[in-house]
Amino acid sequence: MEKESPTNRREYSRVYAYIPLSFRKVLPEERPVVRARLAGDTILPGGGVVVPEIGDRILYEWLKMLNGKLDSIIRVLTIHAEGFQYLHPKAVQISGSGMSFSSAEPFDSGDLVELKMILTVNQPTALFAYGEVIKVEKQTSGYIAAVSFVKMDDHIRDEIVRFVFEREREILREKRLTE
User: With contact defined as beta carbons under 8 Å apart, do 119 and 19 qualify?
Assistant: First the structure.
C-alpha cells in the first residue's frame, strides 16, 4: 500500500492562473450579510428557467437552444452591469479552498476580503467570493495575501473547482505541445 506524501495534504488542487480580479476589504458592518454568489444570481435566482418537456422533440430542442442563448446574453449583460468588464488581469494561485494574489495594500490576518473575479473556461463565469486573510508576505513592491474562502455555497465552490480542473488540463495540453 502506498503512503500518502506529507506534502500532498491539500483537499483541492491549486493552479496558477491569470484572471480578471479586483478585491477590497469588507467593512465590519457588511460581514454579517456578505455571501459568495455568481454575478446575475439576483436577476436569475436558481439559474434561470428550465424548458419543460413537450411532445415535439424538435421544437423542444429549439426552445432549449433559445433558452441557452438567452441565458448567455443575460450573463454578458450582467457582467457589464456589475462592472466586471473593468477588472484587470492579475496572477493568482487558486484552489477550491482559497487563493493568493499580490496587493499594493497590506492586509491583516483575519481581514475579510471581497474578491470580484471572472473565471473563463468555456464561457465566462463572473462571481463574488469572500476570503479570510490567513497569511500576508511583504514583497519588494507590495504584498502577497493568501485567503481561505468563506461564506461560500457548494455551487460556487464547484465553479472554482471546475475552473481549476480545466486550467490543469490546459497546462498539460501546453506541456505536451512543447515536448
Answer: yes
Select from 136, 171, 142, 179 the least CA-distant residue to 14. Answer: 171
pTM passes above 0.70: yes
CB neighbour class for 63 (10 Å; exposed up to 12, middle 13-18, buried from 19): middle
* pLDDT digit string, tens, across residues 10-66: 789 999 999 999 999 999 999 999 999 988 765 555 555 677 888 899 999 999 899
- d(C-alpha 166, C-alpha 156), whole Å: 16
Residue 6 CB partners (closer than 8 Å, separation 6+): none
Is residue 86 within 8 Å of 80, Cβ to Cβ?
A: no
Show the CA angle centred on residue 103, arms to residues 158 and 136, nearest 5°: 80
Residue identified by cell 457588511 is 30
User: CA-to-CA distance for 114 and 128, rounded, in angstroms?
Assistant: 7
